[in-house]
Specification:
Elements (H helix, E strand, L loop, with lengths): L1 E4 L7 E8 L3 H12 L4 E4 L7 H5 L4 E2 L4 H5 L6 H11 L6 H22 L4 E2 L13 E3 L5 H14 L3 E3 L3 E7 L5 E7 L5 E11 L8 H7 L7 E2 L8 H8 L4 E2 L4 E8 L4 E2 L3 H4 L3 E3 L13 H9 L6 E6 H7 L3 H8 L4 E3 L2 H8 L3 H15 L21 E13 L2 E2 L6 E3 L5 E7 L19 H17 L9
Parallel strand pairs: 1-8, 2-3, 2-10, 3-7, 10-21, 11-18
Antiparallel strand pairs: 4-6, 5-6, 8-9, 9-10, 12-19, 13-14, 13-18, 15-16, 16-18, 17-18, 20-21
Length: about 475
C-alpha cells in the first residue's frame, strides 16, 4: 500500500472515473458519475460486492422525504443537522453535516425514481438521538438487500464492476494528482489502470488490528463485526499523499450482537422498553443513550456479555428486520412465560432479575427515577411471555478518516484540495466526532450515500446534486 511515481506506470487502459470499493458509497458514486456522463469503472477486492453495507441493517436517515410526508412526519435538514451536532457535542464539520443532511433526501428519491429502490420510512419506533422518524430502508430492512439493489442499478446503468481486484498502490505525480492504480488479481497477477479522477470508497480501518489499537484502544481486541477488507488503505494512501485526517478515534460500536452466533439484534428491542442486564441480573447503564457507546459498556461486564430482555410486543416490531428473524430461526431468542422461567433459561440469578425488572416497571409507572438516568415514563411495561438474547459488544466500523470538504474532495492540512482525489463513506471522516458517543444511528450510511453521490458527481464533472 504505497504511492508510486506516475512516470513508472504502464497503464493497460485509462478511464475517466475510477471508484475503489463497491459498497454503498462506491456504488452510489458510480451511479452519480455515470449520470454526469463519465465512463466509470468500479474496483472491488471481493468476489461479490458486500462490504460493511451488507453487514448493516441497511437503514439510511433522511429528513423531509416524500415517505415521511406521507406518514405525517415533520422533519427538515436543519433539524437533522441539529441532532447530529448535539449527539457529537458539536465536533463534526458543519460543512459536511450540511452537505449530508441537505443532500440525502434528494439522493434517496433519486435512487427510488431513477434506479427503482423502493424505500419506506420506519414509523413504529424512533432510534436514539433522532427527533423524528427518519430511518429509511428497503423491504427486508437489510444491508445485503441495499448493496444488491445498488449493484443491480450500477449494472443496469452499463457501469462495469471489476471484482477480485484488490488495489495495492496508487500512482501520482509530483503535485499529488492521481494518474492510476495498481491492482492484484486472485492468481497473483498485477494490472495497472489509469484514471482522470479517483474516488476512494473502500471504507475504514476497523479490520486492521494495529490501526484499531492505535486509534481506538478501548476496543482493541474486541469482536470486530465489520468487513475484514476494511484494512485502512484509504487512510494510509491519503497520509502518504499529504492529506489531512480527522477524528481517527471516532467509531461506531454496537452493544447488541447475539453471542456466540454473531447476528446483529436491532436496538428496537431496547428503545421500545427493553433493558440489558449483566450475568448478575443487574442493569449497568442507561441503554437508551445509543447502541454505539453501549458496546464498551457491555464489554466491561463479566465475560463481556449482557442479556437484552424484552417481550413479545417488542419482538413483533423487531421482526421487520431480517437479522432478527434469522436470530429467531437460529434459536438465539429465548422465550419464557415468567420471570422465574426466564431466569432458568438464561442462567441469571432469579432474585436479582426479578428485582431489576420490578425497579424498571416502577419507573415506567412513575414510581421513582431510574438510577442510571433513563427516562422510562410513558414506556409500555414488559409483559409475559418474555424474550431475551445473549449479546456482546463489537466494533462495527470506524468514523474517522481523510479530511474532505462539502464536495467530497480530499484536503491537505492547509485546506487545499488534492487535484483529483475524492473520498466518501468510511474512507473519509464522517459526522460522528471523535468518540463512540458521537455516533447518531445511521451516520455511516448517511455519509456513504449522500457523500458518495457528491463524490461521484464531482469526479464525473457534473453538479454536486440535484434537488429533485
Amino acid at each position: 500500500m504505497s504511492i508510486l511515481p506516475a512516470g513508472g506506470a504502464a497503464f493497460e487502459f485509462t478511464v475517466p472515473v475510477l471508484v475503489v470499493g463497491a459498497g454503498a458509497a462506491g456504488l452510489t458514486a458510480a451511479l452519480a458519475a455515470g449520470e454526469a456522463g463519465a465512463e466509470v469503472l468500479v474496483l472491488e477486492r471481493d468476489a461479490v460486492p458486500r462490504g460493511s453495507t451488507a453487514l448493516s441493517a441497511g437503514l439510511i436517515p433522511a429528513p423531509g422525504t416524500r415517505w415521511q410526508r406521507a406518514a405525517g412526519e415533520e422533519d427538515s435538514p436543519a433539524l437533522f443537522a441539529a441532532d447530529i451536532m448535539r449527539k457529537a457535542d458539536g465536533e463534526p464539520d458543519p460543512v459536511l453535516v450540511g452537505a449530508a443532511t441537505e443532500g440525502i433526501a434528494p439522493t434517496l428519491e433519486w435512487l427510488a425514481d431513477s434506479h427503482g429502490l423502493d424505500f419506506s420510512v420506519i414509523t413504529d419506533f424512533r432510534y436514539p438521538g433522532h427527533s423524528a422518524c427518519r430511518m429509511h430502508g428497503l423491504p427486508s430492512r437489510s444491508g445485503e438487500e441495499l448493496v444488491d439493489r445498488l449493484r443491480n442499478a450500477v449494472e443496469q446503468a452499463g457501469i462495469d464492476i471489476l471484482c477480485d481486484a484488490q488495489v495495492t498502490d496508487l500512482f501520482a505525480d509530483d503535485g499529488g494528482c492521481i494518474r492510476g492504480v495498481a491492482l492484484r488479481r486472485p492468481d497473483g497477477s498485477m494490472e495497472q489502470v489509469g484514471c482522470d479522477a479517483l474516488v476512494l470508497a473502500c471504507n475504514g480501518y476497523g479490520g486492521n488490528p494495529d490501526l484499531v489499537a492505535r486509534h481506538v484502544p478501548s476496543l482493541a481486541g474486541a469482536l470486530y463485526f465489520g468487513h475484514p477488507g476494511n484494512q485502512g488503505e484509504a487512510l494510509l494512501w491519503g497520509e502518504a499523499l499529504g492529506a489531512g485526517t480527522r477524528h481517527l478515534s471516532g467509531h461506531q460500536g454496537h452493544g447488541s450482537v447475539a453471542h456466540p452466533i454473531g447476528i446483529l439484534i436491532t436496538w428496537a428491542t431496547i428503545m421500545e422498553g427493553g433493558i440489558q442486564v449483566n450475568a448478575e441480573g443487574r442493569r449497568f447503564s442507561d441503554e437508551s443513550h445509543g447502541y454505539s457507546e453501549q458496546a464498551a459498556s457491555v464489554l466491561r461486564q463479566p465475560g463481556a456479555i449482557a442479556w437484552s430482555v424484552f417481550d413479545e410486543r417488542i419482538a413483533s416490531i423487531a421482526r421487520q428486520f431480517e437479522d432478527f428473524r434469522q436470530a429467531e430461526a437460529a434459536g438465539a431468542i429465548i422465550s419464557a412465560p415468567s420471570i422465574e422461567a426466564l431466569a432458568e433459561a438464561t442462567g441469571l440469578p432469579p432474585a436479582a432479575l426479578r428485582d431489576t425488572l420490578e425497579r424498571v416497571e416502577g419507573c415506567k409507572a412513575g414510581q421513582g427515577k431510574d438510577r442510571y438516568g433513563r427516562a422510562f415514563e410513558g414506556v409500555a411495561p414488559l409483559q409475559p411471555p418474555f424474550r431475551a438474547v445473549r449479546v456482546t459488544g463489537a466494533l462495527f466500523h470506524t468514523q474517522g478518516g481523510l479530511t474532505t470538504d462539502g464536495e467530497a474532495r480530499v484536503l491537505r492540512p492547509d485546506g487545499t484540495a488534492l487535484p483529483n482525489l475524492f473520498a466518501a463513506g468510511g474512507a473519509a471522516c464522517g459526522v460522528s466526532g471523535s468518540r463512540a458517543e458521537g455516533y447518531l444511528s445511521g451516520n455511516g450510511l448517511l455519509t456513504a450515500v449522500a457523500m458518495g453521490r457528491i463524490a461521484g458527481a464531482m469526479a464525473g464533472g457534473g453538479p454536486r446534486h440535484r434537488n429533485e
